[in-house]
Amino acid sequence: MKLAQMSKKKKITLVVALMAVLWVSWYTVQVNSSTRVSRELRRMQPGVVQMLNDQGETFQITVRIADTPELRKAGFTRNGVQTIEENILLFTYPADTLERHNVQRVKAPLDMAFFRADGSLIQINRTRVNATTSYGPTGPNNRYRYVLVAPAGYFSRQGVSVRTDAQLLPDTIRR
Fold first, then answer.
1. What CA–CA distance (Å, rounded) separates 27 from 161?
2. Residues of the chain scoring pLDDT < 50
3. What's residue 28's pLDDT?
4. What is the predicted pLDDT for the residue at 27?
5. pLDDT on residue 61
6. What is the biggest distance separating any 2 CA atoms in the chain, rounded to whole angstroms?
7. CA atoms of 175 and 172, how far apart (whole Å)
8. Which residue range is the domain that position 103 belongs to?
9. Which residue intervals of the chain are DSSP H helices?
10. Which own/partner contact pairs does 13-18 have at CB distance under 8 Å and 24+ positions apart?
11. 131 shares its domain with 167
12. For residue 138, how many other CB atoms are within 10 A of its CB?
Protein backbone atom coordinates (compact mmCIF):
# COMPACT_ATOMS: atom_id res chain seq x y z
CA MET A 1 0.00 0.00 0.00
CA LYS A 2 1.34 3.44 -0.95
CA LEU A 3 1.62 6.19 1.62
CA ALA A 4 -0.83 8.39 -0.30
CA GLN A 5 -3.46 5.67 -0.13
CA MET A 6 -3.20 5.15 3.66
CA SER A 7 -5.81 6.54 5.98
CA LYS A 8 -4.87 9.35 8.34
CA LYS A 9 -5.16 6.95 11.31
CA LYS A 10 -2.71 4.47 9.73
CA LYS A 11 -0.26 7.31 8.93
CA ILE A 12 -0.35 8.49 12.54
CA THR A 13 0.13 4.92 13.78
CA LEU A 14 3.11 4.50 11.43
CA VAL A 15 4.72 7.75 12.60
CA VAL A 16 4.22 6.83 16.28
CA ALA A 17 5.70 3.36 15.67
CA LEU A 18 8.74 4.85 13.91
CA MET A 19 9.25 7.35 16.73
CA ALA A 20 9.07 4.52 19.28
CA VAL A 21 11.69 2.50 17.38
CA LEU A 22 13.98 5.55 17.18
CA TRP A 23 13.55 6.30 20.90
CA VAL A 24 14.25 2.68 21.93
CA SER A 25 17.34 2.65 19.69
CA TRP A 26 18.63 5.92 21.17
CA TYR A 27 17.95 4.73 24.73
CA THR A 28 19.74 1.41 24.13
CA VAL A 29 22.81 3.21 22.80
CA GLN A 30 22.81 5.57 25.81
CA VAL A 31 22.50 2.78 28.36
CA ASN A 32 25.17 0.61 26.73
CA SER A 33 27.54 3.42 25.79
CA SER A 34 31.09 3.08 27.11
CA THR A 35 31.08 6.82 27.88
CA ARG A 36 27.76 6.85 29.77
CA VAL A 37 27.89 8.96 32.95
CA SER A 38 25.20 8.31 35.55
CA ARG A 39 23.21 11.05 37.24
CA GLU A 40 24.82 10.12 40.59
CA LEU A 41 28.37 10.35 39.22
CA ARG A 42 27.57 13.81 37.83
CA ARG A 43 26.41 14.83 41.33
CA MET A 44 29.68 13.76 43.00
CA GLN A 45 31.84 16.79 43.65
CA PRO A 46 35.29 16.81 42.05
CA GLY A 47 38.21 16.88 44.43
CA VAL A 48 41.78 15.83 45.10
CA VAL A 49 43.54 13.80 47.76
CA GLN A 50 47.14 12.78 48.30
CA MET A 51 48.62 9.37 49.07
CA LEU A 52 51.98 7.95 50.04
CA ASN A 53 53.07 4.93 47.98
CA ASP A 54 55.27 2.02 49.12
CA GLN A 55 58.43 4.06 48.50
CA GLY A 56 57.18 6.98 50.65
CA GLU A 57 56.55 9.17 47.59
CA THR A 58 53.55 11.49 47.72
CA PHE A 59 51.22 11.59 44.73
CA GLN A 60 47.95 13.40 44.10
CA ILE A 61 44.74 11.73 42.94
CA THR A 62 41.90 13.55 41.21
CA VAL A 63 38.65 12.07 42.57
CA ARG A 64 34.89 12.41 42.61
CA ILE A 65 33.70 12.51 46.21
CA ALA A 66 30.81 10.29 47.31
CA ASP A 67 29.87 11.56 50.75
CA THR A 68 26.20 10.58 51.08
CA PRO A 69 24.64 7.11 51.41
CA GLU A 70 22.94 7.54 48.02
CA LEU A 71 26.15 8.46 46.18
CA ARG A 72 28.22 5.75 47.89
CA LYS A 73 25.58 3.13 47.05
CA ALA A 74 25.49 4.22 43.40
CA GLY A 75 29.29 4.31 42.97
CA PHE A 76 30.10 3.31 39.38
CA THR A 77 26.71 1.63 38.78
CA ARG A 78 25.14 2.58 35.41
CA ASN A 79 28.38 4.06 34.04
CA GLY A 80 30.16 3.04 30.87
CA VAL A 81 33.51 1.24 30.88
CA GLN A 82 35.43 4.25 29.54
CA THR A 83 33.86 6.48 32.19
CA ILE A 84 34.95 4.02 34.89
CA GLU A 85 38.49 3.86 33.47
CA GLU A 86 38.74 7.68 33.53
CA ASN A 87 37.50 8.31 37.09
CA ILE A 88 38.40 7.49 40.68
CA LEU A 89 35.87 7.73 43.49
CA LEU A 90 36.54 8.64 47.10
CA PHE A 91 33.88 7.35 49.48
CA THR A 92 33.94 9.27 52.75
CA TYR A 93 32.03 8.28 55.88
CA PRO A 94 31.20 10.48 58.88
CA ALA A 95 32.30 7.68 61.25
CA ASP A 96 34.15 4.36 61.07
CA THR A 97 32.13 1.63 59.35
CA LEU A 98 32.11 -2.03 58.36
CA GLU A 99 29.74 -1.47 55.42
CA ARG A 100 30.06 -3.90 52.49
CA HIS A 101 29.92 -2.75 48.85
CA ASN A 102 27.99 -4.51 46.09
CA VAL A 103 29.35 -3.87 42.58
CA GLN A 104 27.15 -6.38 40.75
CA ARG A 105 26.00 -3.91 38.07
CA VAL A 106 29.40 -2.29 37.45
CA LYS A 107 30.68 -2.93 33.91
CA ALA A 108 34.43 -3.06 34.64
CA PRO A 109 36.68 -4.59 37.32
CA LEU A 110 37.73 -2.22 40.09
CA ASP A 111 40.30 -1.86 42.84
CA MET A 112 38.77 -0.84 46.16
CA ALA A 113 41.25 0.39 48.78
CA PHE A 114 39.96 0.72 52.36
CA PHE A 115 41.56 3.17 54.81
CA ARG A 116 41.18 3.87 58.52
CA ALA A 117 40.40 7.38 59.79
CA ASP A 118 44.16 8.02 60.19
CA GLY A 119 44.73 7.06 56.52
CA SER A 120 46.39 3.70 57.13
CA LEU A 121 45.64 1.19 54.38
CA ILE A 122 43.70 -1.87 55.53
CA GLN A 123 43.01 -3.83 52.37
CA ILE A 124 42.74 -3.61 48.58
CA ASN A 125 40.03 -5.70 46.91
CA ARG A 126 39.93 -6.45 43.18
CA THR A 127 36.32 -6.76 42.04
CA ARG A 128 34.98 -8.86 39.19
CA VAL A 129 32.34 -7.90 36.66
CA ASN A 130 28.94 -9.49 37.43
CA ALA A 131 30.16 -10.83 40.78
CA THR A 132 27.51 -11.23 43.45
CA THR A 133 30.15 -10.84 46.17
CA SER A 134 30.08 -7.78 48.40
CA TYR A 135 33.43 -6.14 49.12
CA GLY A 136 34.95 -4.71 52.26
CA PRO A 137 37.71 -5.44 54.75
CA THR A 138 37.47 -8.72 56.61
CA GLY A 139 37.87 -9.01 60.36
CA PRO A 140 36.19 -7.28 63.29
CA ASN A 141 38.94 -4.70 63.82
CA ASN A 142 38.91 -3.44 60.26
CA ARG A 143 36.52 -0.53 60.48
CA TYR A 144 37.31 2.04 57.84
CA ARG A 145 36.52 5.70 57.09
CA TYR A 146 37.56 6.08 53.44
CA VAL A 147 37.44 3.98 50.27
CA LEU A 148 39.22 4.80 47.03
CA VAL A 149 37.49 3.07 44.10
CA ALA A 150 39.66 2.97 40.99
CA PRO A 151 39.99 1.03 37.73
CA ALA A 152 41.55 -2.41 38.25
CA GLY A 153 45.33 -2.25 38.50
CA TYR A 154 45.47 1.42 39.51
CA PHE A 155 47.12 0.92 42.89
CA SER A 156 49.79 -1.47 41.63
CA ARG A 157 50.66 1.05 38.88
CA GLN A 158 51.06 3.70 41.58
CA GLY A 159 53.29 1.46 43.71
CA VAL A 160 50.71 0.97 46.47
CA SER A 161 50.35 -2.33 48.30
CA VAL A 162 48.97 -3.39 51.67
CA ARG A 163 52.04 -4.71 53.49
CA THR A 164 53.88 -1.37 53.47
CA ASP A 165 53.55 2.13 54.83
CA ALA A 166 51.35 3.25 51.92
CA GLN A 167 48.58 5.49 53.18
CA LEU A 168 45.92 8.02 52.32
CA LEU A 169 46.52 11.53 53.64
CA PRO A 170 43.01 12.52 54.83
CA ASP A 171 44.05 16.09 55.72
CA THR A 172 44.73 16.73 52.02
CA ILE A 173 41.16 16.03 50.81
CA ARG A 174 40.02 19.11 48.87
CA ARG A 175 36.82 19.80 46.98
1. 41
2. none
3. 57
4. 58
5. 98
6. 79
7. 10
8. 39-174
9. 8-32, 39-43, 69-74, 81-85, 154-157
10. none
11. yes
12. 10
